[in-house]
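protien #1 (seq + structre)
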Amino acid sequence: MRDCIPDEAPSLTPCRDGSVSARRKRRRTMKCYELLIAGAVSVPMLFAGICRADDDSTTIQVKLKPWGFVAMETGQIVKGGPDLENNTSVNGMWMRQFMGSMGVDALLSDRSKVSVGMEIDMFNNVPIALGPGDASQYGNPLNWYAYLTEAEYKHRFGDVKSPWLVFEAGYFPFKYNPDARDLGEYLFRTGTYPQYINTVFDQAFARLPGFHAALHPTSNLTIDGLFYSNMEEWYATGDWNLAAIATYTPARGIVLGMGGSLNSIISADSNQTTPRDASDAYHITYNEATGKSDTSFYTFKGAKVMAMASIDLKEFFGTMGYMGYGKEDLKIFGEAAILGLKNYPSTLDTPVVSYNNILQRIPVMAGINLPTFKLLDVLSCQAEWFGSPYPNDIGGIVNSELPLPLSYNLTLNNFPDDHWKWAMYATKKFFKYYTLTAQVADDHLRYTALPTDVNIDFNEVFHNLHEWYYILKFTAAF
């Protein structure tokens, strides 16, 4: 449906929180959403009016192409870590989600278009406290919310079918690793300081507000440049980031890629980007001449680098390699990243943390698409190793707005028992409009929470190879 995401159009399921500081941020973000939603409603109406305009001297032709989908997800956390904030077990917990999305592509010409889309989700995925601060009562009510999925302008330069440059601006989905079905896509789904990784079922891509230019200097080389903002981040809201990715195909069946990003190169609020708090201070220099101290603090600023590769084994079998195999069968692929190039010494405060080992900031993902001989479109197996000594917990970011891997209360954090993750993903499209998608995984799933819930565990659900979940999704799209 979109140029950079799968046909089944996976949904956005953002993590929500209820802390006071985060609620202030969310109110600011919601104001942005209100403006964007107003645009989502008014832009199609405007273009619809233009389509009907008829001037004797100039005829404006705008074609509207509507699209949308409805989807239902159901699954179960077979075994997972406890919800420590609410002191409850999630073993056997059922997950349900219902989604509906509508959008329109306004084709201004063969080269230009405007796309606007919205989605509504209903869910009751994990136990939550029924009242603010009340952890004595639990329930699983059905909740819903609406949000913008895209609002972008796109233009092609050069040949329409094979442009040398594609430019887009606004709020758009972006995916650079087509083989990553669950794990991977590290540039835009991770943090630097602290290091964290996010995954959401059937959403192995990011949505970015800003600008994107895809340059095609040759037929086998693509260079993506992105300048985007932190509109939906938990920290350093409004900061601007710069990223570049090069994807090269040296031979048929082989794809290589590398890229990097500079986070918070332009800061909207330096106190948010680099909080001056005693908890994240790591160095103090005392000047005897002036009698003043100079303190160094951890910062959300940081640089990431990424490398990826994909090999289609069918291409090395000759003509026999295509007999009975599906398009995605027998691909092996991998991706690795460094989440933060700079080392930082230990903090001066307690608990003591540090970013002084770069090997602990490198996630590595490898996978293979098993052959299904066209019974399925994709059957992907992925595994990941990430050597961070800290839990994949964003509680310190959301609640304290500090670039620390831990919250103040260490007893509320589950440290990883091992450093491995895995996922098996399968999908099949049939009768043109329908898609079945399934996943069994021990990945970076987080508990879903409401904005009014103050008792939230921001750690990932699974902490060892024996904890996992399964989920099934049915989608009808046009």
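ok now protien #2
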Amino acid sequence: MIERLFPNPAPLPHGALEDEMRAAPASRPRSNAPWLSFNFVASIDGAATVDGRSGQLGNAWDQRLFMLLRHTADVIVVGAQTIRAEGYGGELLGAEAQQWRKDNWLSAHPPLAIVSGSLNLDPDMAVFAQAPVRPLVLTLETAPAQRREALAEVADVVNVGVASLDVERTMAELASRGFRNIHSEGGPTLLGTFAAAGRVDELSLTVSPLLVGGPARRIAHGPTDASQGMVLDRVLKADSMLFLRYVRPTH
């Protein structure tokens, strides 16, 4: 059983958990402005991966919430390194979730937007070959022309910066395509870049009860002089696993 510890402590049986995870934060502004959320898992000593992957930090509950966070997304944004490491491919949601989306006036499959400055992506990867919706690749004007041409066969390739990712240009590009609920699943460089620009609206963080040690990086990697304050919005618990949601402060 998973339970809500904050606010309003209560158990969340099947059905109630789905409603909880699909609901927007109470403090979210009622506007058509894009809302950018991130989802990460980390050990209690701050590691974002074990042996280069995040999967060993989670469990069945973490995977359940991970999938529920996708339900309301208009687009899912993922860095190229995460794509390569975590093995994305095929449908991002099961049949029940797809039906819920259609019942709620959403497309059955949220498209995937892959961020890659170098375009070091094989067009034959499952993320392209098995995609139910043509992916979007967000890249730089300096990306190799040959790789751009190859990927254009399997995805829409769009520039969102010159020599580095332009956060505002990226958000504008996604908004121009009608994407309001923008959900990202990493990786650390992507979170660090958007945090440095002050554009993280929501962060869902699973705290895994593991001590990892070693050289594993934190969930955000970027400029050392950048910080963005967040407000705790929700705490869920299953066994010794915590699920935290933070949101941008409202002023």
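The longest strand covers residues 35-43.
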